[in-house]
Amino acid sequence: MNKIYNTWIFIISILTLPFAFAVGLNEVFGIFGMKIHGDKFAYKELVFGISAGLIFIIGAMRSSRKWSGIKIVNQIDRFQFNTLISQERKQRVLLINSIEIIGFFLIGIVFFIFSIDAVYISLIFLIFIIDAIVNTIRGVVSKKYRVGMTKKAIVAVDREVIAIYFKGLKRISIQKDLLFFEYVNDLVLDFSLQNIPAEKQEEFMRLLRSNVDEKKVFFSRFED
Q1: Entry pTM
Q2: Which ranges does the record mark as transmembrane (predicted)?
Q3: Which residues contact 186 (CB under 8 A, 6 or more apart)?
Q4: Which one of 15, 60, 94, 154 has the lowest number of neighbouring Cβ atoms within 10 Å?
């Protein structure tokens, strides 16, 4: 899900950058067969405002989802099973979050260099960077990135928020360290056991089989 939000932020940024370049350097900007002179375009504030608004809304939705997920999964008493993410997953999250922060920083800098009129977009990316840093510190240092299971669902929260509900399941299969959850509506979700510390995986699998009705859900490639 995080990837979808970032993809849309990237698309909007890429579409706006040529316009910022034209406005900032007084170049001619071509779109849909029209020629727009950057220094004469009267609606540059509107274009930058719409772009900034869309980027902010998408980023706010992404941030809200992550912080809400952290709040839920850290209500430990509500879960039958609750553990910190594995060390391997933690290192991967740190790496990807660092790349994401650098990416936001570079895009924000480019907007600022291209046109001072796009400074609001740069400030929004600065907000994203601060939010990402705080979320990462909160999740890793304060040990808020966790995986939990109730009788109704699996919830995993780090840079991604994963919720896998047991209702509507028809099949659960395993391939190496990857679990596949197939639903009656043909939806298929996957979950990596590597997100869970090795010493906790047996308990996780035991609870999974006890929470899912094996008369209704077929378990494939599981050892008895």
Answers
A1: 0.85
A2: 7-29, 41-61, 93-114, 120-141
A3: none
A4: 15
